[in-house]
Design the sequence.
């Protein structure tokens, strides 16, 4: 009897567990008003626009503040600025504000508020982590170091509705920088009354100028936003009355809530649910690349010769079927064969990579060509057999997905070329230390693409911040420098294209795939736009429930 | 009155002389242990299972037609079939091959990781308890200090120094786990060292070595065997955990723990990737536990029937 009871109890427990695994029913909750949009959100760190450095915070600030210009669907869109122009030498940018801009409390929103916003970012006394993004502004760096007064900095309020930026060097894409790096207006009197450290710490310590005002903020739980009727284009933009951002910790709960209709969208879906919610997927690939960083000096014993050989490096690159690898390892990522983010706009209205294509390896690999390059490399180096090639190491950080990716790569090199590469994983801090110490033959880590095509290329030059000295190409360095200095957009694009071509041909730092995130949204949500590096673009969001 | 004659006596039956003769053959302690184990059905079944798993771990990867690390991109996430008995993982690697290669690592680490610290603990704890004095003081203070440091710190330092591999993991586990068993053994040693049978052995001139290992240890061993059998699962799990913070066995080598970790993230879509290695871990751990339990009964001289 006792045994039977124990068995029964055990069975009940098993059944209970199985029930717990089941999918939650997909019945949508009825009766919710269609003017509310609810989203499962990862949560904000701070809404202090001066101190934030998280994209999550910027997403909320986007809803709360009117910026000079902002991104919409990959293009720069005018927000508070009615128009803007750059001087012929591309060093002076002037933004003209619209008529009748007001803060939500009725005060006038003027050019001085935007100038003060920039001043706060640069003020050494405030220590904004975003300060380094604005060093292209004239004397900004000196102001940050306390060498010059604010009046010397190239931010000038011409009149109530005009603000002028003077830059250190010609920059034809300053509007993109402003849109991507965000300039939020700040009211000096208000900031000084609440104190810069308290700014954005509660709903009362923010002044609102954007599409929404914040009506409730429960820390680490939820944020409720109400439409701001005094926004300059309240009639046509931000039509959803209420936006609720719910902070949900557990990815399983998030998906269950989505299936129950408690949330209309998920900001970031956990990878295990990609296929489960395939119909609701909103993919976002870009903003950064996973690169193979080939240490041309080698690290393993005897690796300097092979790693220094361009044909050998090319063989490694051609041997990878990037499409299949992305699909198998992380379907949010997208195979890449060009160091320029495909999201960057070109100069003729299309995408940069389409207007200025380069000759490169196929994303699904080419084993025959890889073997050809390997044979060539072995001839040049005097190896008779693949087994004479020294064992190499590939180093990366220690997440499960990096492990799978590393295993996929090493096995393809082994199967397709017979080259042995050992995967080594370290905790992220140690791994980054190794990256700069150059104690690896190949490194596997991502790098952000930033605002414009040349940003990433500049970081890859022999003196760039992304290149610890593993690869150097004088031609590439020169082309990148020329491209940055060039004022004419067409010539600049051509130089950029050439630089990218050299980078691919020399196979020093090789793109593997574009990073990606997967969001989920219900079919009744329209105008749901999230940019890769520029976040929420909800100005045309509609919930047709 | 008649004299007592020899007729008055009848000889006792011969058998009376045999009363002090040991009829049953004399059995040594270990023979007895073995006999009792053999007669226990649960012990036999669980031991057979462990043996089977071990043999499969040794031979299955050798005869399998797929390599455990051979990826096949188009063949990812296939369900179990006649082609791939346990299906494939996301990179198209055959899970049958991976489960058995993983078994090698998991069993090796499980067994060694449980036994090595136990041996160290028994020797040091036994010596400390038996001899007492400054030696006891020294060893126990080392344990007191050592136990204050989180074991993850040892593990991380050792793994960073020796690199990742099964030997380093076992060493790391031994460094942090020997202290518990040393404490227990010392306590038991204190309890037994003044008992009569120990005194008897000492009186007859037995050396300390003999007293510890022949007379006291069998009394303690039973308990320690059980703690070994329950330490095996924790060693297997610790390996899985280490694998995940990047300190486990180096890629592309795998273990049951790693297979489970990887399968866990996809269990709603591909449950077999979690449940197959999961079932192996569970049943193997159960087998070790049951066998350890029977072994405890068999090893304890007091429970002799």
Sequence:
């Amino acid at each position: 009897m006792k045994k039977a009871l124990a068995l029964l109890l055990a069975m009940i427990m098993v059944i209970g567990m199985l029930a717990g695994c089941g999918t939650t029913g997909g019945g949508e909750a009825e009766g919710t008003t269609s003017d509310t949009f609810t989203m499962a959100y990862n949560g904000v760190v701070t809404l202090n626009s001066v101190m934030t450095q998280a994209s999550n915070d910027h997403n909320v600030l986007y809803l709360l503040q009117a910026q000079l210009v902002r991104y919409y669907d990959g293009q720069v869109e005018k927000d508070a600025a009615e128009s803007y122009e750059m001087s012929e030498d591309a060093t002076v940018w002037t933004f003209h504000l619209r008529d009748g801009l007001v803060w939500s409390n009725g005060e006038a929103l003027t050019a001085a508020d935007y100038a003060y916003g920039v001043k706060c970012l640069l003020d050494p006394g405030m220590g904004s982590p975003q300060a380094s993004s604005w060093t292209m502004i004239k004397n900004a760096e000196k102001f940050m170091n306390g060498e010059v007064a604010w009046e010397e900095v190239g931010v000038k309020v011409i009149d109530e509705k005009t603000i002028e930026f003077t830059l250190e060097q010609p920059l034809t894409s300053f509007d993109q920088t402003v849109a991507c790096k965000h300039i939020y207006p700040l009211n000096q009197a208000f900031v000084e009354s609440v104190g810069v450290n308290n700014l954005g710490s509660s709903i009362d310590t923010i002044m609102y100028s954007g599409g929404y005002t914040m009506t409730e903020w429960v820390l680490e739980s939820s944020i409720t936003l109400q439409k701001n009727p005094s926004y300059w284009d309240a009639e046509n933009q931000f039509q959803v009355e209420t936006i609720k951002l719910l902070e949900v910790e557990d990815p399983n709960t998030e998906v269950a809530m989505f299936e129950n209709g408690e949330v209309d969208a998920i900001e970031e879906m956990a990878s295990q649910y990609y296929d489960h919610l395939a119909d609701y997927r909103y993919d976002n690939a870009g903003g950064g690349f996973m690169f193979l960083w080939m240490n041309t000096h080698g690290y393993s014993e005897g690796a300097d010769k092979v790693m220094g050989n361009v044909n050998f490096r090319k063989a490694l690159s051609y041997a990878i079927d990037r499409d299949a690898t992305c699909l198998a390892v992380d379907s949010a990522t997208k195979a890449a064969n060009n160091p320029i983010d495909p999201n960057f706009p070109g100069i003729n209205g299309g995408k940069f990579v389409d207007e200025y294509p380069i000759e490169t390896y196929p994303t699904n690999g080419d084993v025959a060509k890889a073997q050809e390059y390997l044979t060539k490399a072995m001839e040049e180096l005097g190896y008779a057999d693949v087994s004479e090639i020294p064992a190499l190491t590939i180093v990366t950080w220690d997440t499960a997905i990096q492990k799978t990716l590393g295993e996929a790569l090493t096995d393809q090199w082994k199967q397709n070329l017979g080259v042995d590469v050992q995967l080594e994983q370290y905790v992220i801090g140690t791994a980054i230390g190794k990256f700069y110490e150059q104690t690896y033959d190949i490194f596997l880590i991502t790098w952000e693409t930033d605002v414009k095509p040349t940003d990433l290329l500049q970081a890859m030059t022999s003196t760039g911040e992304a290149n610890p000295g593993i690869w150097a190409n004088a031609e590439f360095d020169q082309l990148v420098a020329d491209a940055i200095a060039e004022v004419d957009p067409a010539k600049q694009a051509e130089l950029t294209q050439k630089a990218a071509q050299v980078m691919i041909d020399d196979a020093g730092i090789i793109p593997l795939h574009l990073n990606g995130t997967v969001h989920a949204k219900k079919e009744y949500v329209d105008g749901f736009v999230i940019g890769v590096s520029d976040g929420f673009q909800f100005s045309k969001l509609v919930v047709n429930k | 009155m008649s004299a007592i004659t020899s007729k008055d006596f009848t000889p006792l039956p011969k058998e009376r002389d045999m009363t002090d003769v040991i009829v049953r053959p004399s059995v040594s302690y270990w023979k007895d242990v073995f006999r009792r184990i053999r007669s226990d059905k649960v012990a036999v079944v669980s031991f057979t299972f462990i043996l089977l798993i071990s043999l499969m771990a040794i031979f299955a990867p050798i005869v399998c037609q797929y390599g455990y690390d051979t990826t096949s991109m188009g063949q990812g996430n296939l369900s179990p079939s006649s082609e791939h008995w346990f299906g494939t993982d996301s990179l198209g690697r055959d899970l049958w091959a991976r489960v058995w290669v993983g078994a090698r690592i998991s069993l090796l680490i499980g067994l060694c990781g449980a036994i090595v610290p136990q041996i160290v603990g028994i020797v040091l704890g036994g010596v400390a308890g038996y001899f007492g004095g400054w030696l006891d003081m020294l060893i126990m203070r080392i344990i007191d200090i050592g136990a204050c440091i989180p074991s993850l710190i040892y593990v991380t330092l050792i793994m960073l120094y020796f690199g990742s591999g099964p030997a380093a993991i076992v060493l790391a586990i031994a460094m942090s786990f020997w202290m518990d068993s040393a404490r227990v053994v010392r306590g038991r040693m204190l309890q037994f060292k003044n008992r009569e049978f120990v005194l008897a052995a000492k009186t007859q001139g037995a050396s300390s070595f003999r007293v510890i290992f022949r007379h006291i240890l069998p009394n303690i061993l039973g308990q320690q065997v059980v703690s070994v059998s329950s330490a095996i699962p924790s060693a297997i799990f610790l390996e899985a955990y280490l694998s995940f913070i990047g300190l486990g066995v180096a890629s592309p080598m795998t273990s049951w723990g790693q297979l489970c970790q990887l399968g866990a993230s996809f269990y709603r879509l591909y449950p077999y990737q979690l449940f197959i290695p999961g079932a192996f871990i569970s049943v193997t751990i159960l087998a070790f536990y049951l066998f350890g339990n029977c072994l405890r009964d068999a090893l304890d001289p007091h429970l002799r029937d």
Chain A has a mean pLDDT of 89. The radius of gyration of chain A is 26 Å.
